[in-house]
Design a protein that fits this description.
mainly alpha; 190 residues
């Protein structure tokens, strides 16, 4: 078992090193996708935390390359279920970085961002995560054509927000001129 655990750590460490050392965006995208997939398995969490992969995923959220953003957001989504990783994300300004991904044109990025926000809710982070701008965004998403986006936004509104927050934002949105666009809905690329 110890040998297997050591091999796992070394493999993940090699992936992180490859990501840092390569100049090829295509190779970096592949490595990032692999790391995001490994973040789904709880047996990798300790190694990924030690290798500071949470920080790597957070760094990807500000990249120009939208595939980096998508895979970084997906990796964070997978890690955010763990309380320790959730705390790392919260302590490193993750709510703002994740919130910025709500305006992505890629549906997968937006879905991962919403799920991550759901996972990041704690008593101390709730007010930041249910900021009126985010509630308004979720109300817009709850009207989307995409059932996945619509349903996930509804879950966010139900689980994270008070009825008063939702009602108040609905009233404010009705008072806005119909030309207000707000955050664009992502493209459904299926």
């Amino acid at each position: 078992m110890w040998k297997k655990n050591t091999d796992r750590f070394e493999y993940l460490q090699n992936l992180v090193t490859e990501f840092q050392d390569t100049d090829s965006d295509e190779a970096r995208e592949q490595v990032l996708a692999n790391l995001a997939n490994f973040a789904y398995d709880p047996s990798n969490l300790e190694h990924l935390v030690e290798l500071q992969v949470t920080d790597l995923f957070l760094d990807m959220l500000t990249e120009e390359n939208q595939t980096f953003v998508e895979f970084g957001m997906g990796g964070l989504c997978n890690l955010s279920m763990d309380p320790h990783c959730r705390d790392i994300i919260l302590q490193n300004g993750g709510v703002a970085l994740v919130t910025n991904c709500l305006s992505s044109q890629r549906e997968e990025t937006v879905l991962s961002a919403i799920t991550t926000l759901l996972n990041l809710v704690t008593p101390s982070s709730r007010s930041e995560i249910t900021d009126p701008a985010i509630v308004q965004c979720m109300l817009r998403f709850s009207l989307a054509n995409s059932p996945r986006l619509r349903n996930l936004a509804a879950v966010f509104l139900q689980d994270c927000c008070t009825k008063e927050q939702v009602t108040q934002m609905q009233q404010q949105m009705q008072e806005l001129p119909q030309t207000a666009v707000g955050i664009p809905l992502p493209e459904d690329r299926r």
